[in-house]
Amino acid sequence: MYLQNLEKPVGCIEVLASAYRNNGVTVTDLIRNVGMPQKTAYSSLRKLTELGLIRCAKEKDNGRMTKRYFPSERAGKLAMYLDLACTAMKELERKNGAKTLTRLPVGSLAIVARIYNEGYTTISDLRAGAGMCGNTAYSALGSLTESGLIYREVERGFPRTIKKYKLTEDGAYLGKILDLADIAMMLLEEEHRASA
Fold this sequence. Notes:
Layout: H1 12-21, H2 27-34, H3 38-50, E1 54-61, E2 64-71, H4 76-96, H5 108-118, H6 123-128, H7 134-146, E3 150-155, E4 162-167, H8 169-195
Helix pairs in contact: 1-3, 1-4, 4-8, 5-8
């Protein structure tokens, strides 16, 4: 669940995807075109810069110096997959009339990638295997269910009932893309650890 590292602060995924899609972005671009609050834009750019996933270049725009942010060379594939994921989420929003999928709670996209890989997940799996607290897991699963990306299947048994969360067809479509992004993020983190 390497993607989870990019879900906080909220906006990192959108910033990196937008920088890839538009061959660089400014903070003004993020505010106007993505609808991102200024504080979110700056905190996302700070985190992406710290991770080495985005680089900054100064350029002249209408006589003023402006900072334009680009995906770093090493983040190219990750940025491409995140752009595909954001595009897929927007398509699903139009198709289903769901709430904005790009504003899902932290951990949601990592959960979709996890279910894609494992076939299903449970609250226990998310708490133990993914290190999520219960409130985060419940919030993410509730929003994913509401957006039509996952559904809950209940298995009644002894000594307890197990609630399994599985992907819908739309969730599997998004899950495939997020899985590729998760792999790209994992490779970047391993490369970063090896060079440190």
